Amino acid sequence: MNVRNVRDKITWTTIVTVFANAGQVDQANEYFDEIPDRDKVSWMVMADGYLRANHFKEALDVFREMEGSNIRADGYTMVCILRVCMHLGALEVGKWIRCYIDKNKIRRDVFLGNALIDMYLKCGNVERAMKIFE
């Protein structure tokens, strides 16, 4: 990738970030759709924008589309999507995310561990939350 492509990608992602942080997720999504070569950062900016705007289903849709684009998620991605599951009460999706974390050997730091605990607690599975805590 040449310098111009990197600069263009950063510019597109910055525009999406500005609109997403301002709560203008529809406008952010319009620019996101124009990004020619999306990377993990651009996908997560869009998903996080939806999460912050309480558009949880849309955030989950962005994650699913990202997965379909063969972009490998990281710990930050998992924390964001677990927060979406928590707000939706989507325990089954949260369980799938936990399997994804284990299968892809994503490092469980304190942020990811806490997100898993929160998701299980807020989805009503106290026993599983305690196992992760222990």
Produce a short descriptive summary.
With 134 residues, the protein is an all-alpha fold.
Q: Could you describe the 3D structure shown?
A:
This protein has 134 residues and is mainly α. It has two domains: 1-55, no CATH class; 72-134, no CATH class. 77% of the residues lie in helices and 0% in strands. Helix 2 packs antiparallel against helix 3 and helix 4 (56-68) runs antiparallel to helix 5 (75-88). It contains eight helices and no strands. The N and C termini lie far apart (45 Å).
Give a topology summary.
Layout: H1 3-21, H2 25-34, H3 40-52, H4 56-68, H5 75-88, H6 91-103, H7 110-122, H8 126-133
Helix pairs in contact: 1-2, 1-3, 2-3, 3-4, 3-5, 4-5, 5-6, 5-7, 7-8
